[in-house]
Each structure stands twice: as C-alpha cells, then as structure tokens.
Amino acid sequence: PASNLGLEDIIRKALMGNLED
Amino acid sequence: ELTQEQQTLLNFIVDAYNKHRIPQDMAKKLLQEQFNTEENFILLTEMATSHVQVLVEFTKNIPGFLTLDHEDQIALLKGSAVEAMFLRSAQVFTRKMPQGHTELLEERIRRSGISEEFMTPMFNFYKSICNLQMMQEEQALLTAITILTPDRPYVKDQRAVERLQEPVLDVLRKLCALQHPQEPQYFARLLGRLTELRTLNHHHAEMLTSWRMS
C-alpha cells in the first residue's frame, strides 16, 4: 500500500504518473 | 492593480489549488467512522499519503515548475511537503464547518498518539492561520510560495527557483494590499506563518518517531 512508501517514493510516483487519468 | 500577466498567474494557481483536493470519500472517513488507535494511525497515514499526491498534482500546475531540473523538483517537493500539508489541513479549522465537525477532527488528532509537546505548536499554528481569515487565493499563493522555496536541501539551481517564486510573491503582496487596505501589515503576517511552518517542519521528523513508538 502507498502508506508503506517513503515520502520521496510517493513524490516520484506522483510526478511520473497522472492521477487525473 | 494586478497586471494582466499577474491575474493570469493568480487564476492558474488558484484553479490548480481548488481542483486538487483530498478525495471526498477519504475526508468523510475522518468524520464518520470510529477507529481504535491503530486504525486511527493507519487512516491518518493514508491521509498524509493522499495529501502528498494532491500536493504533487497541484505543484505540476504551478507555471514553470516542470521546467525545473527533475531532481530539483523532487528536492522542492520533499522539502515542502510537510509545510504544504500543515497549510492545507489548517483550512479545516478555518472554514466554517457543520457543527461538531471541527471538534471531532481535533479529538481524532489529539487521540492519534502524538505527544503533547508536538500537539501544542501544531494547534497553535492552526489557530494562528484561523485568526488570519485567509482568502482562498491567499492560501493557494502561500502554498505555491512555500513549495518554491529556493533554499531547501539538495536544490542545485536555486536561482531558477527564485525566478519562479518572485512573481508569486509579488502577486500575493499586491493582493494583500488590495484586499486588506486597512491592514498594511497583513502581507508580513502571512510571511510570518512561513517561519512558523519551518519550525513545524523541523519538529515533524521527531514527531513521527515518537508517534510510531507510542
């Protein structure tokens, strides 16, 4: 789950992806 | 008055800020369900994750941000995430909410297991934001300014970040003068909250450690 990721991982994933899609 | 260019920048940032919010169903969970301490911890952690995702989506829409060096983008987001999160969550205590909701939320945070020494500065911050009675535009601009802080750790091209932050500061300064003509100190008071946020940010790592322990 996302809650197990570190802050940087969450940021990198969010920067790469597009949550709006 | 704001120039056309400044008005466009303002509209862009405010639209992005309003568009990217914590999903409603997650926000509702905070109010509707009862949790034991562990479940409460998990819920607040999920909220924090969602906050970061929302923050990144907002930040991608700040004009010029995606033109920065990719690693600098990450350094800025890492350095500001906690501050932006406190700023966004302070809104909860600023807005007029249905009766009892604010108390319920406060109770949930107070029972999260975070120790009192961290709780007090956090609620003091929420109170000081509440006292400012910020407009949505001011909140959005202040968040953008927080994110575009050039002196975060590991930022390589600080000058490029400054070039993005300065026009946003100018818009906020003008907006404050326009919206609070009777309060010449209002802009300075807003910037003062940024200092307070930095202090909260410094305490945050320590706070998380003590929270996990308890």
Q: Would you report the number of β strands of chain B?
A: 0
User: Major sheet of chain B: size, sense and barrel closure?
Assistant: none
Instruction: State the total count of DSSP E strands of chain A.
Output: 0
Structural class of chain B: mainly alpha
List keywords for this structure.
heterodimer, A: mainly alpha, elongated, B: 214 residues, mainly alpha, 9 helices
Write up what this structure looks like.
The complex is a heterodimer of chains A (21) and B (214). Chain A has 21 residues and is mainly alpha-helical. Chain A has 1 helix and no strands. The longest helix of chain A is centred in the middle third of the chain and has 10 residues, at 7-16. The termini of chain A are far apart. By secondary structure, chain B is mostly helical. Helix content of chain B is 76%, strand content 0%. Chain B has helices at residues 4-19, 24-32, 37-60, 70-94, 101-110, 116-132, 136-147, 158-179, 186-213. In chain B, helix 1 crosses helix 7, helix 3 packs across helix 4 and helix 6 runs antiparallel to helix 9. The longest helix of chain B has 28 residues, at 186-213. Chain B is globular, with a radius of gyration of 17 Å. The mean pLDDT of chain B is 88. The A-B interface holds A 2-3, 5, 7-8, 10-12, 14-15, 19-20 and B 42, 45-46, 48-49, 52-53, 56-57, 60, 70, 73-74, 77-78, 81.
Could you outline the blueprint of secondary structure elements for this entry?
The complex is a heterodimer of chains A (21) and B (214).
Chain A: H1 7-16
Chain B: H1 4-19, H2 24-32, H3 37-60, H4 70-94, H5 101-110, H6 116-132, H7 136-147, H8 158-179, H9 186-213
Helix pairs in contact in B: 1-7, 1-8, 3-4, 4-6, 4-7, 4-9, 6-9, 7-8
